[in-house]
Specification:
The protein is built from 15 helices and 13 strands. The chain has 385 residues and is of the alpha+beta class. The strands form three sheets. It has a six-stranded antiparallel beta sheet with strand order 12-11-8-9-10-13. Helix 3 packs antiparallel against helix 5 and helix 5 packs across helix 6. The longest helix has 15 residues.
């Protein structure tokens, strides 16, 4: 018989990532509650519990002041860049009372700020795409035409940019188009970067998710391969498959060097892309927090949320060295778009759905179906409007 747990976690975030964290912690028999106004599919989960009303309207900047209303020993689990920075910035006294398995603030800032991330990878001589920081339009004048033509624009801060423009990056049509985009983004408050576009299909993208404990020991790694994505160039994974660690080549060594240099601790999700031109395995970005598909990793045997709770509470953290390989995860709504983009719209719903059979999903789950029903209703309402 499994030993019951009595841990309590406050998950700070919203949306699909929050839903995945709630389910992963429920799988580990850990009690979890969320901010009272948390929206999206997570709110419909059978395991959703709203936190104290004193937390209503809480923003990352107000976290330290709000913690006094929480039960002492509550573990904090940030689910977005803003929340992980807020938790990492808490004073030591509050971190003792409200523990969290997160990296030091400087390490978090290196991973969240793509400019600092690029500088760190360059200093460590780790494989990454060629990148230029563009603080103003004139910075493009020093970049060769051939480089501009083969590059794209991305922000130094990704989550806020996506919320504003609903894309992760911009393709550009030459130098003048790039300058126009840089000016537009600067006026919206975003610093931009010009990055070399690594050619190749979605299947050239790999991810290594895992966990580093308080002693700097990597306790878990989980590898997955992107099979489809939407939008085609700079979108999110819509269909993926778990793969052996051997498939991610030099990825683990790259992350080990990076994490040792910055003193990393906590949950991570790193994206790589293989460059077919030189066979290099380039590190694209690292999320210093749970991600959309964190429940997929847990269902395959790598529950990083459970490891984070044990680490935060100072317990021994077990090492996970095996997981289910060949399991797939699909986000049907977005994957339908991915398949239509790939076929020029020449595929119907039933034909597209054949590839979804047997795959896990980030929203629908037989044991917790309400979030999916809510999402279907939301999509239908949008269609009717």
């Amino acid at each position: 018989m499994m030993r019951p747990r009595h841990d309590t976690v406050l998950a700070l975030g919203t949306g699909i990532t929050l839903l995945g964290v709630i389910r992963a912690l429920a799988q580990a028999r850990v009690g979890v509650y969320a901010l009272p106004e948390a929206d999206g599919p997570a709110r419909r989960s059978r395991w959703f519990r709203a936190g104290p009303t004193s937390l209503a309207g809480l923003k990352p900047s107000g976290l330290a002041d709000a913690l006094g209303s929480l039960p002492v020993s509550t573990v904090l689990m940030p689910c977005s860049d803003a929340w992980v920075k807020s938790v990492a910035a808490l004073p030591d006294e509050l971190r003792k009372r409200y523990p969290a398995s997160v990296a030091p603030l400087d390490a978090v800032n290196i991973l969240v700020d793509k400019n600092r991330f690029r500088d760190t990878l360059a200093r460590l001589r780790l494989p990454h795409p060629t990148t230029y920081v563009l603080r103003e339009e004139g910075d493009l004048d020093a970049v060769p035409d051939s480089t501009v033509r083969s590059s794209f624009l991305k922000p130094t801060g990704s989550q806020e940019f996506f919320a504003r423009f609903h894309v992760k990056a911009f393709r550009i049509q030459g130098r003048e188009d790039a300058k126009r985009r840089v000016a537009e983004c600067r006026d919206a408050g975003f610093e931009m970067m010009l990055q070399d576009y690594i050619p190749g299909p979605p299947t050239n993208h790999y991810f290594i998710d895992g966990f580093v404990d308080r002693d700097g020991i990597v306790r878990a790694r989980f590898a997955r391969r992107r099979l489809r994505m939407s939008p085609p160039d700079f979108g999110n994974s819509t269909l993926m498959q778990s793969v052996p660690l051997a498939d991610v080549e030099t990825g683990p060594a790259t992350l080990d060097a990076l994490f040792a240099s910055i003193g990393y601790r906590g949950v991570f999700s790193a994206e790589f892309k293989r460059d077919e031109r030189n066979r290099q395995f380039n590190l694209i970005e690292v999320n210093a927090r749970p991600w959309w598909y964190v429940e997929f990793a847990a269902r395959c045997g790598v529950n990083v949320c459970e490891l984070a709770v044990d680490d935060a509470l100072g317990r021994p953290v077990r090492t996970i060295s095996r997981y289910k390989v060949g399991r797939r995860c699909v986000f049907p709504y977005y994957d339908l778009y991915a398949q239509r983009e790939a076929t020029g719209g020449r595929i119907g719903l039933l034909a597209a759905a054949r590839s979804w059979l047997g795959a896990y999903q980030p929203v629908f789950r037989w044991s917790d179906p309400a979030p999916a029903f809510n999402e279907v209703a939301r999509i239908l309402r949008g269609r009717l409007r």
